[in-house]
Amino acid sequence: MKTYNLCLLGFGNVGRALLILLQEKTAELRERYQIEWRLTGVATRRLGWLANPDGLDVSALLAGQFELLTTVASGDDVRDWLSAARADVLFELTSLNVDTGQPAIEHIRAALEHGAHAITANKGTVVHGYRELQALARRQRRSFLFEATVMGGAPIFSLFASSLPASNIIRFRGVVNSTSNVILEEIERGKSLEQAIQTAQELGIAETDPSADVDGWDAAVKVSAIATVLMDTPTPLANIEVEGIRHLDAEQIRAARAAGTPYKLVAQIEKIGEGIRAFVKPQRLSPPDPLAAVTAGSMLAHFELDTLPGLTITLDVPDYGPAGPLGPAVTAYDVLADFIRAVQSEQRG
Q1: Lower CB count within 10 Å: N or C terminus of the chain?
Q2: Catalytic hit among 25, 191, 222, 281
Q3: DSSP string, 193-237
């Protein structure tokens, strides 16, 4: 049974949740999937490039007792670090750069060239580097996987890859940004936009700078990823019509809810000839529309296919907050699932 050397690049909430999940699933990974693992590398701006091919103390790391970690010389860049850690798998969990996808793309490239599987939650790697990185992964006979980048907790990319062969998307519609949905619901309850954003921040849902969610860019990046991967049409952000919820009047939002036609930030992609039209914008939705019923913390993706009239995937979150299903544990699960898929692919040869 192979023991996989795991490296974490980025050790924020998702990285911590992933290590906790790996610890919880250790016996199941061994008995069900024939996977043993050890953590041999962690890298952050604050900690630097930490590596030990014999394994780092996960409990000490989670407890913040970094002085107890035994490390070896690991250089001062990602390639030296991967070599020092003898990495079999890189979990790339750094922050999104919407404009270029860097340095995450270079991190993934380095991992694949080193001979490691590369698994990421960073949408920029898909939007700006998908074709290059997938081609490199095939040449290296390794996996580049990214389920956590869109609708964390819902199987979007893996579903099409494994269960829907020869199915082509004609149209996609979805509510794929839960933060904007939470803000809209808080406004419906009587708050101003600023108060709703503050509530979302206090709950740990919105970032300190919420503009990516409020102005529609987080949803647009997900639209680009879906179009690029599932519709084989690379779609730069400049080609997506983006309108957020910032300009909506609070009374307008509350009146729409009272009329039974609530506002949702809708993401849509539609095949038009050889190309596509894609947008993100707020729309009033009537009850027959499945998107109208999406509750605050939940997300929904609806696909119309050439083989199926409609396929809906819902991540249903009855409540939201930092300790709820919207938290880092959901993203961490997607990363873990990709790890298992990568190993299974390797085991099949």
Answers
A1: C
A2: 222
A3: HHHHHHHHHHTT-S-SSTHHHHTTHHHHHHHHHHHHHHSS----G
pLDDT in tens, 315-348: 887 666 544 445 688 899 999 999 999 999 999 9
The per-residue pLDDT for 297 is 77
> Mind listing the domains of the chain with CATH numbers?
3-145+329-348 (3.40.50.720), 161-318 (3.30.360.10)
Give the Cα separation of 66 and 48 in Å (integer). 11
Contacts of 258 (CB under 8 A, 6+ apart): none
For the sheet with 263-272, list strands across it. Answer: 240-242, 275-284, 263-272, 169-175, 299-305, 311-315
Instruction: Calculate what percentage of the chain has a pLDDT beyond 90.
Output: 86
6 with 25: CB under 8 angstroms?
no
Assign 3-state DSSP to the chain and report helix, strand, coil percentages, each to 5.
45, 20, 35
For the beta carbon of residue 309, count every other beta carbon within 10 angstroms.
8
Residue ranges for the binding site?
A: 10-15, 123, 207
Structure-token match 């296919």, residue found = 305
Round to whole Å and give the CA distance between 271 and 236. Answer: 16
Place of tokens 């991992």: 111
Task: Cite the annotated binding site for L-homoserine by residue number.
Answer: 207
Task: State which H helix or E strand residue 347 sits in.
Answer: helix 328-348
pTM assigned to the model = 0.93
276: helix, strand or coil = strand
Are 119 and 157 in contact, with CB atoms under 8 Å apart?
A: no
For residue 191, indicate whether it is catalytic.
no
**Calpha distance 6→16 (Å, rounded):** 14
Q: Is the dihedral of CA 117, 122, 125, 131 positive or negative?
A: positive
Kind of pairing between the strands at 89-92 and 311-315: unpaired
**Of residues 134, 137, 114, the one with CA closest to residue 7:** 114
Distance CA 33, CA 88 (A): 16
